Amino acid sequence: MYKKILVPIAMDQLEHGESVLNIAEKLIDEGGEIVLLNVIEDLNAYAQGYMIVDFPLEMIEESRRHATKTLEALKTKHGINGRVEIRTGGAAGTINALANEENADLVIIASHRPGLIDYFIGSTASRVVSHCPCAVLVDR
């Protein structure tokens, strides 16, 4: 059904990521590509105006290594045709930008039940649905 599916996976929500990956496997065309994405939040951007925080580069690099290793293992476990992308930035904007850059046919994103914080800043899934250049499937 789809030639290119983007699957964003948060490292703290791997069980949801695996569920979303199972859906992607069922919807991908034969010979299609699944792009597993992890976005490392740019926490320094959030700190502006509120407090000064400087996260060590080693911490960011360790997060990149961990995400790459974890997503490569998931890709191998599921035997999917695809690749891993690790990006830094705001989650929703980065997901939407990569969907556009890759000419993705579909983004499949996990969503959680909203908590109090989501009412103040909005959920990533909501922002992806609102601004994504392609179809979005939200798994709850």
Automatic annotation (TrEMBL):
Gene3D superfamilies this protein is in? HUPs (3.40.50.620)
List, for all copies, the residue spans of the domain called UspA: 1-138
Q: Which InterPro entries match?
A: Rossmann-like_a/b/a_fold, Universal_stress_UspA, UspA
UniProt family annotation: Belongs to the universal stress protein A family.
Name used for this protein in its record: Nucleotide-binding universal stress UspA family protein
